């Protein structure tokens, strides 16, 4: 049996093979990830070319790091090129290494041909042995090889071993070459090698892992400290209703602004002199508050710089300006984390059925902080101040006795001459800047549809059902409205915007409530007079009768006449149930939210009536068609057939209908649509539009919050979705559970921007919740009586009877 033998690389050739392989495995992916990507030439944004001073400051701020980034790019390229040069040198060095392994060839040793005879082999052996004999001064090792080669070619056993194993002595030892130099495993260097292994694998590597774990364990998603999340959780559980002012307090208490937890924060002795001056200039900092953790020095400093940013102060020192820019950059992710914590508390409130938890206003007030930080504007200010070159002095020209312009959409809908007359105090270049920014301002339209997925009656919502809400969003620039007049008056506009609250909402609610009551009364009076309904059904029945008579089927006509009375009673019952449901919906509408628009409510009532009419008409048609089908199946039954055979014929004729095929196709199409939507969501890139925000120190992309709320109950219905890829069109599905009490409900779909004021979109939708149908427990299909089981068992026994049983009979 062959043995084993380990051989170390004496010349270091195998080590170069090993090192080259590992080096290439590291260098190739490192080059792919670290090589600087060629930046695509992006289209020039308005912030880069505007003459507005904050835009110029932001442009220089973003370009300030350009030389450093360019130097870093050059350094990375030089290092990677040097690494590839080393790889080429190693490859050339490996190509020069000669192979040490040679096959044993006795013909080459004796210097004879492969087809040489025995006499020629003996002659060559004698000549070589005389020449290389040790007694004659020859090489003993070479002489031994010559003798071994002669024996191999003359001895049959040795020759067979050479042909089989490549060695005349039979199977030899297995050689393993280790790709390490011999000095590394030499016993003289064992202590040195052991120290290296101990230092690398037992000291350096564990220390690196420990440091990495300590740093990563302090952070959650979006590189937010876990201590910050704990602070948010503590402060949000204290009060259920939080105003915008308190939301700013919570934001300023973030642990990211504490030097003890964040090394990026720098405390300077000059802060003790400069911050008190800002306290006197800013009246709403609340530096004397005693509540924990708002009285901490880091929180007071952060809060002061936040208010300085919201008031657009430009008198800060360079050090405070750097601190303010860092706080503003981190604020967007921190605001999103506050919203996430509040939503988690709302979910816990629903699970535990508790009344203590953040209200809808708390989440919405926190969302309003984001456009405040992006636009450097307080929520109490006019949204027109988002446009460049417009100051507080210009706002008095927007509100006069002739006109009242409060919203950007109103300003965009005006004629160019009117706009220029309002802004007559600015230059033409400044006016062009305003119009260019106004042209890229977002204008989003939203359509909402809902239903119960995977259900026969999608439009019927029962208590506790899972409702699928589909929202189709279409985003376009405000420039599309320059040549159009808005078809919405100022009152409707204020109802659709989220910034106008208070008395205007109460007046709109009262008007909508009165109008909805009037439409409900009108709808109930119209549904009681159902003469047209009966005329339609009677006409269709007469038409079906005439068709039956022309075909020559007296049975179908008689059955249609006999079944006319039950259908009429069913129609009357459905009408009474319909009227009862409308009366109950009237009563419930007074209990639930009534702030839906009148047009949407009338549209909903009309579509519901149309659906009921079409359902009843289709039921009448189906009844008549069923009669015809019954007649056809009865004609196919033989006269001498048994009841069991007739039932089998009927069931075979009614196994599958075209309606079943249509249902299968509809289900398959819905399933494919859901799969396509999931694939789109998984592969969709976060590409949006760049925001015009000259006071924000970074490039910002448009993002939106999309959620469903119940304004009447001040409750959040669905978890807010953070959209960062609304470029043109998008379709989003949201699922929520229907209320557990029957009645009429009005929910609101809200699309809120995190970058702009006066860009939010709301859409109300109403639905009726009905009592869920009871599952039939005593269906004949599942009624297995003992008698039936006994007869079936007896039939099975008779079918498989043996010969002995038959002989006994």
From TrEMBL:
As for subcellular location, the record says: Endoplasmic reticulum membrane
| One Pfam family, short name | DnaJ
PROSITE patterns assigned: DNAJ_2
Location of region: Disordered = 495-664, 779-809
Query: Which ranges carry the J domain?
Result: 105-166
**Low complexity composition bias: which ranges?**
519-535, 557-574
Transmembrane segments annotated in the record for this chain: 15-35, 74-94, 191-213
Compositional bias ranges of the Basic and acidic residues kind? 509-518, 577-595, 602-611
State the annotated membrane topology for this chain.
Multi-pass membrane protein
Please name the GO terms that the record assigns under molecular function. Answer: protein transmembrane transporter activity; RNA binding
> Spans of biased composition, class Basic residues?
538-556
Supply the alphabetized keyword list. Answer: Chaperone, Endoplasmic reticulum, Membrane, Protein transport, Transmembrane, Transmembrane helix, Transport
Q: Which InterPro entries match?
A: C2_domain_sf, DnaJ_domain, Ig_E-set, J_dom_sf, Sec63-dom
Q: Which SMART domains match?
A: DnaJ, Sec63
Keyword Membrane recorded: yes
Biased composition regions of type Polar residues, renumbered to the chain: 643-653
Q: Where is the composition biased (Acidic residues)?
A: 796-809
* GO term, biological process aspect, one: post-translational protein targeting to endoplasmic reticulum membrane
Q: Which GO terms describe its cellular component?
A: Sec62/Sec63 complex
**Protein name as it appears in the record:** J domain-containing protein
Q: Which organism is it from?
A: Rotaria socialis
